[in-house]
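Deliverable D5.2: sample structural annotation.
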Amino acid sequence: MNFIAQELSRPGIRVTFADVDLDIVETLVTFDVDRVTSNVRKYVDDVRSTLMRAVIGGDKPNFTALRDTIGERMVSNLETEINTALMAFNRTVTTSKAQSLGFDLFIYLGPEDDITRPFCEDLLQEDPAIYTIEEIQDMDNGQGLPVLQYGGGYNCRHQWRPISTEQAAEQGYGD
């Protein structure tokens, strides 16, 4: 929350958080915890299914292979879920607070490297990479996740940062 307050603070604008902001944060945390918990249940179901097939087939379960395959996948997927949830949380609180302060323009920022998705590359190629909230809400990242909260999708490292109309014009927006 302190990071977001610093990001949104401008000369003459004091950013404070109200109870409504805290309610939004609590709702987001609960939603993402529920989503991660649901995915953990899926992994447990995978283990259960694998073990049951082995028992029904009269085989001794191979726990080493199970740990190597399902365990590795589970840890990797959990890492993805947690990274994605943290970034979505940051984007959601930032854009929500920015909108409440009257910002309607957002610049897309982040790395452009070998693992950047084509969706993100396309957004970053715009000069400047500034979009209205309506444009962002109409975007489709191809992953079924809202772009405003999830950017390019799972493990996306990019951010929507609010930008004033004046700052946007300085960067060539609207020309």
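Annotation notes: The beta strands are 105-109, 130-132, 159-163. The chain has two domains: 15-102, 103-175.
The annotation will be released with the project's public dataset once the embargo ends.
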